[in-house]
């Protein structure tokens, strides 16, 4: 005989002979494949559902939500919280909705107070080591998202968007799981441009984000119990560039008739997907765009051929770069001058210069060398630039003249007069910045935190393709991933206790 138990969110079935419970259905997760589950996954499933686990008995490996005692032996159970976590989520260095409006959105800038903890470590020249490690996902070229997705605990996803593979980290078992698509789910591959997704700030159970795919925009849902995902269409049209959000609107570039040489169009809607508008964007590229940048009430998409600016409710404006001037999109991203204007670095064949964004008659400011960074977090060689983007570097240590600093992540803090963040420092390097960012092998690199105190977090030997380094924050730690490494390195931001 089998007994049926119903909780506010789930339906369970108890086997009278074995005394074990089987989950039949639960809110928001769709079809449940319980039989395919090994017992090693049940501790993670219990934490996601807010179910109960055995503490002093061995009658069953898992119990329905709210059970305080085993119905067979009467021993107490470990009741897990069932309310969604309120821990801040992570959607990539370019997605932070809590940043103030005067900070460009879409660049590697976060509002998380990372420096408050990292700067308590021994300062340079002491060389630190990472505190903990995590195995690299099976598909290592990926982007990361850490959020609660409507569950009681935060969980980490790794999306290999070039292959369309979604991976789920089980922190209890210490394993990555590849999630299978439900019947009818859209493929998650997207390679037309740089990747960006739109997170859901108040998700329903299992709701992840609005994601770009080769077939359009889709709402992504995960089922960690069955290790599957499903999608719901938001916009069915081939995408040219990743979507962006500006206040209460979202927008993306589409090309419905790409095979027939059709025109690129900008599709926009309110965040509730009402008030849809489309604007023709003739003669603009169909691939190769940066992820969108939000600033001054507009979204910007950048390309080797020009910039596209759009303000909600108005037609977009594509402005080609001046003749002979090429942007350096790999150098980081736009930065701001003290009067609030946005600038991007490029090269005109003779030298580097900053070009103003968002105007059809841009000003230009020549500079005496490459500068890497974004959003006022700039470095010329091994020295910070602390005034205007075109100002001279601030030299504190002449020994850093033969190093090159690549910023990875800026931590925004209103209480700091100078920007702080995570960087890579290439030692004994005097070549061109472009060569360091491509296929050149860098003999010695240090992972550093630049702030009130400069802290060397770790050291890397023989690093190549440094732009593939991906920082993310998950479970109270700052992590750094590179597809060539065997493990992801982590540094604690909170007291382990």
From TrEMBL:
This is Uncharacterized protein. It comes from Telluria aromaticivorans. The lineage of its organism: Bacteria, Pseudomonadati, Pseudomonadota, Betaproteobacteria, Burkholderiales.
């Amino acid at each position: 005989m089998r007994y049926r138990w119903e909780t506010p969110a789930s339906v369970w079935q108890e086997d009278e002979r074995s005394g074990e419970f089987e989950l039949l259905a639960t809110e928001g997760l769709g079809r449940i494949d319980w039989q395919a589950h090994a017992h090693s996954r049940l501790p993670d499933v219990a934490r996601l559902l807010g179910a109960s686990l055995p503490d002093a008995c061995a009658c069953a490996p898992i119990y329905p939500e709210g059970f305080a005692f085993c119905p067979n032996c009467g021993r107490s159970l470990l009741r897990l919280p069932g309310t969604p976590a309120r821990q801040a989520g992570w959607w990539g260095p370019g997605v932070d909705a809590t940043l103030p409006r005067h900070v460009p959105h879409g660049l590697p800038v976060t509002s998380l107070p990372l420096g408050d903890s990292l700067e308590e470590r021994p300062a340079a020249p002491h060389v630190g080591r990472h505190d903990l490690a995590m195995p690299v996902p099976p598909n290592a070229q990926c982007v990361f998202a850490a959020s609660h997705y409507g569950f009681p605990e935060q969980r980490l996803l790794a999306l290999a968007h070039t292959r369309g593979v979604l991976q789920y980290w089980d922190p209890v078992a210490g394993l990555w799981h590849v999630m299978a698509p439900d019947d009818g789910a859209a493929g998650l591959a997207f390679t037309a441009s740089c990747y960006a997704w739109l997170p859901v700030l108040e998700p329903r159970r299992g709701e992840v984000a609005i994601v770009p795919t080769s077939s359009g925009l889709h709402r992504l849902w995960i089922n960690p119990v069955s290790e599957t995902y499903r999608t719901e269409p938001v916009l069915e049209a081939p995408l040219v560039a990743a979507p962006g959000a500006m206040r209460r609107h979202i927008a993306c570039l589409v090309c419905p008739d790409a095979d027939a040489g059709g025109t690129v169009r900008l599709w926009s809607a309110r965040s509730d997907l009402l008030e849809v508008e489309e604007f023709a964007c003739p003669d603009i590229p169909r691939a190769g765009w940066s992820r969108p940048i939000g600033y001054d009430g507009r979204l910007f998409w950048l390309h080797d051929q020009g910039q596209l600016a759009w303000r909600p409710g108005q037609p977009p404006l594509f402005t080609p770069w001046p003749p002979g001037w090429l942007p350096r999109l790999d150098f980081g991203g736009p930065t701001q001058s003290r009067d609030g204007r946005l600038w991007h670095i490029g090269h005109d064949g003779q030298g580097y210069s900053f070009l103003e964004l968002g105007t059809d008659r841009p000003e230009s400011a020549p500079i005496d060398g490459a500068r890497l960074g974004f959003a006022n977090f700039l470095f010329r060689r091994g020295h910070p630039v602390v005034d205007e983007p075109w100002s001279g570097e601030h030299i504190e240590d002449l020994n850093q003249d033969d190093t090159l600093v690549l910023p990875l992540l800026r931590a925004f803090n209103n209480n700091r007069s100078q920007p702080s963040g995570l960087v890579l420092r290439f030692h004994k390097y005097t070549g061109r910045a472009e060569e360091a960012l491509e296929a050149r092998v860098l003999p010695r690199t240090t992972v550093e935190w630049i702030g009130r105190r400069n802290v060397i977090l770790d050291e890397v030997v023989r690093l190549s393709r440094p732009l593939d380094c991906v920082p993310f924050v998950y479970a109270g730690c700052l992590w750094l991933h590179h597809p060539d490494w065997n493990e992801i390195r982590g540094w604690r931001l909170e007291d382990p206790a």
